[in-house]
Amino acid sequence: MNTSDSSGGTVHQRSVVRVGAPLIIAALALSACGTSGGSSGTATTGDKKCDLKIGMFGALTGPNANLGIYIHNGVKLAVDEYNAKNADCKVTIADFDSQGDPTQAPGLAKKAIDDKKIVGIVGPAFSGESKAADPLFNEAGLVTITPSATNPALAENGWKTFFRALGNDATQGPAAAKYIKDTVKSTKTFVIDDASEYGKGLADIVRKDLAAQSVGTDTVQTKQTDFGPSVTKVKASKADALFYGGYAPEAAPLIKQLRDAGWKGTFVVADGVKDQSYLDNAKSAAEGTIITCPCAPPDSAPEFATAYKKAFNTDPNTYSGEGFDSAQILLDGIAAGKDRAGMVDFVKAYDKKGVTKQLKFDAKGESAAVLVYAYKVEGGKIVSLGEIK
Amino acid sequence: MQYLIDNFFSLTVTGITLGAVYALVALGYTLVYGVLRLINFAHSEVFMYGTFAALWAVQFMGGHAGASIPQVIGWIVVMFVVAMATSGLVAVGLERVAYRPLRKRNAPPLIALISAIGASFVLSELMGLRDKFAGIFGQEQNLDAYVGRARNNAGLAEILQPKPVFTLVDYQVTNVDILVVLGAFAMMIVLDQFVKRSRLGRGIRAVAQDPEAAALMGVNRDRVIQVTFLVGGVMAGAAAVLYMLRIGITRYDAGFLLGVKAFTAAVLGGIGNLRGALLGGFILGLTENYGSALVGTEWKDVVAFLLLVVILLFRPTGLLGESLGRSRA
What is the pLDDT of residues B122-160, one digit of tens each? Predict the structure, then answer.
């Protein structure tokens, strides 16, 4: 909430300076950063529909909220830029805070579908909740562009409304495996997953690709805090690298306990761990961690990075750019006068350069351009090592 | 099997350190059960408040990595004092608010159990919403280091880096392992002596054995119950410090799973029986580790609870039987 409030202020100023007149309407729209829109009737200018909304579906509170908030900021930036240009016909963001919990996802999806002003959804952010919510969106014909759910199986369901603005784990997994083999030069690799849709999917790909050099495998659980048995296994295997498929809340205590036990190998994780909370909690144990991510580093889109920094007073983070791109596609659709039904075909035919990559989707809704980057934790910061080729 | 043999000591030592934490928390369940015949489900939250108290105490003192040994010892001592005081107070407050009014009205045990579960949720969510709570007083920004990101993990500063002290066949025992085990044993001995020798301890045993006779003999039951909660809370506070030194990360819901495990340990050893709780804690910690070595880490919790079921099938009152009053401690 903090972030949306403070950025709300800046938009407010901007729109006042540029437009001046519809102060009250602007204030109404801005106060409505929650789910309730400033519904003062559906005003129309030309054939464009106004008062439309973009849904933001993901964890905005809860232990995985940071990823959701990074995306939300990207979406907000795109919407604010749109509103500054179209002050007479604003778009608002409707938040659907799933807390990353698949059991909450279907209920929220129904809520989003029932709100007829929502023409498209950015999200769901995680793979588990996507699996739970996307069938409903498909049935209702409400387009979803996920900026972060990377489980490959999601695209295999024949959902017509499913689009993914980044590479999936089937591309991230091999890239991680390649990096472990070629750059880390590991000969004894251990793989752990957290049994989640995302973590297991990713870890299984790495297991398959590195089967020849695998020295062991293990499964932990989400919310686990003591990893004693896994630590013993990793140490006993004499692994020189460990790949963990999972999220930051478990990765932090895991690496901390491994380092405490004196394990010296390279810790390789994927995008689910690319989060400030990992650094805050694992502290010095996080140093040297390699993070793969289909997310573009800020330096690949300097203009976006500058605008983001100006709006939120912090650098863009994981999937902020993808969130921005996803929202941009929907906003372009709104500008072209598309309603909920017309949006699916619009997104399907979309082909434009975004801040992260060329935005174009294949028949399954997968991103046509796929780039995977490597990052490393150095001096308490996540620094980019460039694209994994 | 070969893996278990090769890594026997590694699994044993880590199992014992975790078991020590279970045992200390289990004492709280067992003490309260012995005196009140009530399972204090909110005890896991008492533990969780201890972890945060320890964390914030270090944060407040500016604890950091690489400090001198006397300084580190100082920090740890303060951690213990603050966490034990906090957990003790939370436990006493809990008894005051959630149980005593029910007892005064002679509510049936089931009502107290529901009250316990409710109190557990309230305490946990209060911690998970602490940023909003601070926001009510406009202190959200000032206290950001303490209340910010309330639903995320919070990590302890690295005041004590584990260093290998000696090698036990296949495992390098670290200073943290030693501290955890010694700390837990010290607390257990203190408690054992307290219950066995002190006046209040005698009162606890008397009430556990026969509340009415104890009342006739002039034992103030309310006072004894309060002391029982306090002692259980203090033990949970000590467990919280040991947990933070070893795991180093806590969260508003960190008490839940650990609480369930500790409760299991208490039942395993015989609920109401202090030594049973200790035995149960260690057995549970070890079983989890051995079990995960034999059948896979993902079965860790299954093995632990399976053990519980099997033991209760053959010994329904737990390994050492339920009796706070009759046993000498």
Answer: 999 999 988 888 888 888 788 888 887 788 888 898 888
Q: How far is CA A241 from the centre of its chain?
A: 26
| Candidates A61, A224, A229; nearest CB to B293 | A229
Q: Given an 8 Å threshold on Cβ–Cβ distance, is A63 in contact with B14? A: no
The interface pTM score, or ipTM, of the predicted complex is 0.87
**For residue B324, how many other CB atoms are within 10 A of its CB?**
25
DSSP for residue A62: S
Q: Helices then strands (H, E): number in chain B?
A: 15, 4
What's the CA gap between A347 and A329, in Å, rounded?
7
Q: What is the model's pLDDT at position A48?
A: 58
**Burial environment of residue B209 by CB neighbours within 10 A (0 to 12, 13 to 18, 19 or more):** middle
Does pLDDT of A295 surpass 90? Answer: no
The CA-atom distances, in angstroms, between A306 and each of A299, A316, A317, A373, B197 are 10, 9, 13, 21, 70
- Phi first, then psi, for residue A225 (nearest 5°) are -120, -30
Give the three-state DSSP class for A377.
strand
Q: In 10 A of CB A341, how many CB atoms?
A: 11
CA A9, A12, A14, A16 torsion-angle sign: negative
Query: B144 in contact with A at a CB cutoff of 8 Å?
Result: no
CA terminus-to-terminus distance, chain A = 38
Lowest-pLDDT choice from A92-96, B26-30, B167-171: B167-171
DSSP per-residue letters across B83-94: HHHHHHHHHHHH
B162: closest CA of chain A, how far (Å):
6
Q: Tell me whether strands A381-387 and A373-378 are parallel, antiparallel or unpaired.
A: antiparallel
pLDDT band at B91 (very low <50, low <70, confident <90, very high): very high
* Surface of A (242-261) touching B: CB under 8 A: 249, 252-253, 256-257, 260-261
Q: Do B289 and A228 touch (CB under 8 A)?
A: yes
**Dist CA A267 CA A279 (whole Å):** 13
Q: Does A333 reach chain B within 8 Å, measured CB to CB? A: no
∠ CA A145-A147-A149, nearest 5°, is: 95
Report the residue of B300, B302, B303, B305 to disrupt the A interface, i.e. the one with the largest count of A CBs within 10 Å: B300
Four-point Cα dihedral A302, A308, A314, A320, nearest 10 = -90
**Ramachandran quadrant class, B171 (left: phi over 0; alpha: psi -120 to 50; beta: rest):** beta
- Any idea how long chain B is? 329
Rounded-to-integer distance, Cα A28 and Cα A26, Å: 5
The C-alpha of A272 sits at a distance from chain B's nearest C-alpha, in angstroms, of 15
User: Which DSSP letter does residue A296 get?
Assistant: P
Task: Indicate whether this model's pTM tops 0.90.
Answer: no
| Residue B250: its H or E element | strand B249-250
Tokens of B102: 């029910």
The mean pLDDT value of chain B amounts to 90
Q: Are B297 and B79 in contact (CB under 8 A)?
A: no
Contact A281 B10 (CB under 8 A): no
Query: What DSSP string runs through B109-135?
Result: HHHHHHHHHHHHHHHHHHHHTHHHHHH
A381-387 and B164-168: which strand pairing?
A: unpaired
Q: What is the pLDDT at residue A164?
A: 95
Rounded CA separation A165/A368 (Å): 9
**Beta-carbon separation of B297 and A229 below 8 A:** yes
